[in-house]
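Quick one: structure for this chain?
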Amino acid sequence: MIEIVAMPVLGGIIGYITNDIAIKMLFRPGRALYIGRLHIPFTPGLIPRQRERIAASIGNVISTQLLNRDAILNTVTSDENINRVYSAFMNLAENMKSNERRLEEIIEDHISHEDMDMYGRALQERITLAIASKINETDVGTRLAQSGIEMLKEKSGMGFLSMLIGDDLVSKLGGVINNVLREKAPEIIYDELGKASEDILSMRICDIITKYEDSIPGILRGFIGLCKIIIEENTDRILKLVNIEQIVFDKVSSFDAAELEQMIFGIMHKELKAIVYLGAVLGFIMGFINLIFLFI
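Got it. Here's what it folds into:
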């Protein structure tokens, strides 16, 4: 009777111990062991020995499957996140209605007055160049000339003007206006932007919110849309600069055997224990099967 019970039980114990040892050998020992000059097989453990290959594989999977361009864009620019950002800014604007501090004071809490002036001038110059460039591209001079002449014809009521003023004159007048705009527009735009920015910076936050309250939703939608475009156009460049695969590789490669074991056991503790218990169950079953064959 003892032999009948002992064989399956012994098989279960052997299965438990062998699986437990096999799992521990994945991580231990953490370094190669030698007897004299003779290298002891299976040292270091499989995971420490293949750490760099594992690190490279994890980095590749994360960068190409989990945190690739499409995954990041689908998450960051999803309608849900865009609406969340919009709601957050709208709530911020609502809370700012009672803020009586000047905009300039709030900005100076985060950057110095000199830096604010420097960034302000740089932004002012970029906006000026963008507007002036757009004016030149759209041939505003010709449009103004055409509109002015049409208005003159209508108000004068003199049909003979149509005979005197042809396309050639409109083209020349438009060219003159374009030359004036090309020469004077940047300076005018820059000065007007400076005046506008000074006025806005000197205003209290509550006054700004009240003054532009009806325009805030549209401004926010436009700003968020612009940010979305910038993100979509620069995601590849950002990912190339960040290099997620290299970051993961460097981090995983820097772990020693004990850290790797602790990390993996922390994630898969129950699953690894289940493998050990499964070994005991399989060992018990194999012992029982051997017992059956013994008595056949």
